Amino acid sequence: MHMIQQAERILGGRIPGSDRQRLVVITGPRQTGKTTLARQKWPELSYLNLDAIEIRESLRGTRTATWARVVGNAILDEAQKEPTVFDKVKYAYDAGDISFSVLLGSSRFLLLDRVRESLAGRAFVYELWPLCVSEVRSALGRPLSPPLLDALLARPIDEVLEAEPELLFGEADALSRLAIDHVATWGGYPELLRLDDNDRREWLRSYQQTWLESDLRDIGRVNDLLPFRRLQALAFLRSGQILSYSELARDAALPVATTRKYLEYLDLAFQVISLPPWTTNLTSAVIKTPKLYAADLGMLRAVTGQTPGGGAWFETLVVTEIHKWAKSTGRDVRLSFYRTRSGMEVDLLLETPTGVLTIEVKARAAATLSDARNSITVGAALGDRWRGALVVTQGERIERLHPEQPVWAVPISRLL
Fold first, then answer.
1. What are the strands of the beta sheet with 272-275, ordered from one edge?
2. CATH fold of 18-127, please?
3. Contacts of 286 (CB under 8 A, 6+ apart)
4. How far apart are alpha carbons 349 and 333 in whole angstroms?
């Protein structure tokens, strides 16, 4: 049994110190650690939690002209709950009376709507998602460090992978597998690390109920939660599939317009990830509809009752982990997938200014060259823009799959 430490956050190394002239906005799902991160990063700032009605009333009564003297540089938690604070922060910042403030909120819709109204062009916006695998590893005792994926996007993949040992042994390998297993089974909400399995199940059920009754009310008017619950479960059961609004609406017994609205609510609440199709014309026969993924595997389990395992579950794990990593690091990378109408598909394309890395996901221990055949086909069409292909497996070995081209099998425990 490993002693659980405070997880280090990738975003913590990216957000600025309070010596910078900056307005910082951090949004993300409830219970992802926004408050903990902010108070650790900026202990010198006063902290005001607008969940408390008396704090909201006090700030509402604070005159704009006296904001800098009464509040000053501060962390304003759940800032969206008092709309007047945005104009007051703007006034004090523009006047040079404050130089730094942090606004936190778990309602992306309300928070960013108010940022757009009052702080457009002034605020730097960041998202804090549930823990990435590397962050879970840090809670298990291994210092936070960039994953192999980081190097693969920065340097030629042959150069990176030829320098890696084929197999890892010992504590480093064990911690990586433990972190992967935790995220695949329970998801990435930090509180779950400290709980036993029974309490984890109860926490996830409670979180789902709280989200439906509280955060959903902030996003949109849903009078009857039962149809929304049904839609959410059906959407989660389709994790990793091409999104069809008409099929989802039919199965949920809802109008298509309502289905679209409910899926938008799930997206605003960080409950789903929409993976866009590759839009550059390699062929005119490509699918132009996004794929849908449950954003957290713990929530997928709680909402659907599914047990971890299978190809769709593993694909969801790989895609959501890379998505969280990209959001946390701010890396200039665009995620998409490629599929033709005839069914030829590449699970994930990572496009950076230096080219495109294609990724196939296989829920088994070993890969063969045939697993990368679609990537090689797409790579040929991309020409010089193709940087190579990875086949992500559940195995242990990093293996070269093609003698001449940069095509490799990489275990998920090594990639992330």
1. 241-242, 291-294, 272-275
2. Rossmann fold (3.40.50)
3. 277, 278, 338, 339, 340, 341
4. 10
pLDDT tens digits, one per residue of 183-235: 999 999 999 999 999 999 999 999 999 888 777 776 777 778 899 999 999 99
Contact assessment for residue 240 and residue 316, using Cβ atoms and an 8 Å cutoff? yes
Share of the chain above pLDDT 70, in %: 98
DSSP secondary structure letters along 327-362: HHHT-S-EEEEEEBTTS-EEEEEEEETTEEEEEEE-
Domain boundaries, the chain: 18-127, 133-415
Q: What is the pLDDT of residues 250-289, one digit of tens each?
A: 999 999 999 999 999 999 889 999 999 997 766 556 778 9
Q: Which of 302, 343, 352, 300 is nearest to 322 (CA)?
A: 352
Task: List the structure tokens of 345.
Answer: 């598909």
The pairing of beta strand 334-339 with beta strand 345-352: antiparallel
* Residue 216 token pair: 């959903």
Q: CA-CA distance, 378 to 37, in Å (whole number)? A: 41
